[in-house]
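Hi everyone,

Forwarding the result from last night's run.
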Amino acid sequence: MFSLAIPTILPLLSLALALPLEPRDDPKFTINSLSATFPYPGVYGKPTVNSFVNIAVAYPDPSSTSGATLNTTCSVSWPEGTAPGPTAWTPCGDSALQLRLPTEGWTSTTNFEVELWETTTTDGAGLDATQILTSGPSDPNGQMFCIQMGKFNPLTCTLTGPYGSTPRTVVMDATEETSQPN
């Protein structure tokens, strides 16, 4: 009688042991703010300017067991006379987090991909997240609002969605990777 019951219980027991005891949230990065300045071509624009992209980011605390987050700022820049474009990995305020604007995601100064990397272990593994940020005055899904205000000024962008009317955050799902992407 016992020999018949054990084989039917074993698969259920292994399944019960494989389930986590508590649900875990997927790791996420949240861009809470963005400010950027780019050259603006044309007769009334400013074709050369010191350009930059600054973001404020909340990201998973690797030492937390309760899902706590840390906050830092990240910035990339280009000197006047240099066309803004893709960047290499750049350390953020907290050097465990890095930012780049990858080549494959760069379309223009108003449509580019942001990639974040957080090193979480001593062997170089970590979390990677990407998001294409877009701007378009009539695009309801656009995260950025970019405008050239007045004559001879650069293009400025903020994370305020279409027409600069609504402050936004951008939540990026992160994936666990064994090493930082090239």
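The CA atoms of residues 39 and 125 lie 37 Å apart.

Cheers,
N.
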